[in-house]
């Protein structure tokens, strides 16, 4: 078999550089490019050296571990034991994930017949796995593995950020309680213009059984004031919450001023972990659609009511 050392060096240079950059992304680091290039060159030279000199101890577990440590020191520096251990763990997690993706993709595309055909049992009882992969297929499989790993990492990171902003919301009206998950929206600055009471949003379907027939769906397409004008036709006993309803003007994304139908609850409880606060000076706007596409949350919490580090909260105030 002919081995081209220059191809081995260049391939490992590209792979090591990509893995180091993925490690930096996982650990949210910004190493200098020349340090990453130097570290990648060290790893590539180590791989190419295997075909030039015969030093068994250099390719032992201790030797590989030492080269890995030198690569990480070169790319990211030391910065303390805990920091370096976390980088080391992330580096090998990325390595195992991408290498596993390459092997899995290659066997998916190239393996044919029985899987035992690629396995040889040695005289000592060991197993040898034959694995042949062309350079082009290796590059494609590696690129696919990196893409999937980055996608999974980005999804996990997004979910973690989202979880940090999720709270438990409980609304009390006339002694009855409704609860759901809510997302603290730091960009929500909607207030009642007259009283300066903060307005949060909830899906109208939560109160579907309490609202007049069809309102929960009609709120998505019909003006709120038109629905409110129908209360007179319902009679005195038609809707018990009639006196709690409010019309809140707001400006939509296209700059058009609209009216939002809101309700004045007895209280709203916002809980984040073991911490809970109760607010009485709050209005709840009704949304006729689904606030979250996947149903993760059904309310948008005003930042004055949230309890995350990025948004202030106000103490409970009487109505």
TrEMBL record:
<protein>
    <submittedName>
        <fullName>Sigma-E processing peptidase SpoIIGA</fullName>
    </submittedName>
</protein>
<feature type="transmembrane region" description="Helical">
    <location>
        <begin position="129"/>
        <end position="149"/>
    </location>
</feature>
<feature type="transmembrane region" description="Helical">
    <location>
        <begin position="36"/>
        <end position="59"/>
    </location>
</feature>
<dbReference type="GO" id="GO:0006508">
    <property type="term" value="P:proteolysis"/>
</dbReference>
<feature type="transmembrane region" description="Helical">
    <location>
        <begin position="6"/>
        <end position="24"/>
    </location>
</feature>
<feature type="transmembrane region" description="Helical">
    <location>
        <begin position="89"/>
        <end position="109"/>
    </location>
</feature>
<keyword id="KW-0472">Membrane</keyword>
<dbReference type="InterPro" id="IPR005081">
    <property type="entry name" value="SpoIIGA"/>
</dbReference>
<feature type="active site">
    <location>
        <position position="185"/>
    </location>
</feature>
<dbReference type="GO" id="GO:0030436">
    <property type="term" value="P:asexual sporulation"/>
</dbReference>
<feature type="transmembrane region" description="Helical">
    <location>
        <begin position="65"/>
        <end position="82"/>
    </location>
</feature>
<dbReference type="GO" id="GO:0004190">
    <property type="term" value="F:aspartic-type endopeptidase activity"/>
</dbReference>
<keyword id="KW-1133">Transmembrane helix</keyword>
<dbReference type="Pfam" id="PF03419">
    <property type="entry name" value="Peptidase_U4"/>
</dbReference>
<keyword id="KW-0812">Transmembrane</keyword>
């Amino acid at each position: 078999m002919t081995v081209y050392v220059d191809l081995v060096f260049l391939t490992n240079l590209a792979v090591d550089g990509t893995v180091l950059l993925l490690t930096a992304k996982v650990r949210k680091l910004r190493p200098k490019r020349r340090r990453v290039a130097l570290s990648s060159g060290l790893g590539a030279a180590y791989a190419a050296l295997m075909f030039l000199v015969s030093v068994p101890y250099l390719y032992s577990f201790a030797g590989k571990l030492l080269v890995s440590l030198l690569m990480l020191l070169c790319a990211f520096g030391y910065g303390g034991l805990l920091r370096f251990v976390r980088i080391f763990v992330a580096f090998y997690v990325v390595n195992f994930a991408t290498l596993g993706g390459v092997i899995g993709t290659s066997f998916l595309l190239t393996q044919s017949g029985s899987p035992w055909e690629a396995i040889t049992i040695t005289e000592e009882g060991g197993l040898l796995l034959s694995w042949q992969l062309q350079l082009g297929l290796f590059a494609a499989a590696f690129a696919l593995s990196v893409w999937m790993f980055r996608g999974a990492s980005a999804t996990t990171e997004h979910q973690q950020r989202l979880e940090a902003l999720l709270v438990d919301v409980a609304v009390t009206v006339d002694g009855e309680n409704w609860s759901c998950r809510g997302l603290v929206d730091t960009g929500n600055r909607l207030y009642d213009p007259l009283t300066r009471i903060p307005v949060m949003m909830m899906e109208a379907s939560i109160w579907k059984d309490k609202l007049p027939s069809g309102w929960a769906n009609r709120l998505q397409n019909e003006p709120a004031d038109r629905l409110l004008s129908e209360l007179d036709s319902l009679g005195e006993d038609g809707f018990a919450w009639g006196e709690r309803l409010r019309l809140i003007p707001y400006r939509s994304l296209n700059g058009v001023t609209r009216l939002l139908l809101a309700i004045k609850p007895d209280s709203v409880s916002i809980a984040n972990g073991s911490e809970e606060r109760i607010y009485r000076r709050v209005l709840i706007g009704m949304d006729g659609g689904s606030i979250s596409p996947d149903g993760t949350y059904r309310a948008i919490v005003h930042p004055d009511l949230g309890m995350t580090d990025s948004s202030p909260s106000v103490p409970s105030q009487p109505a």
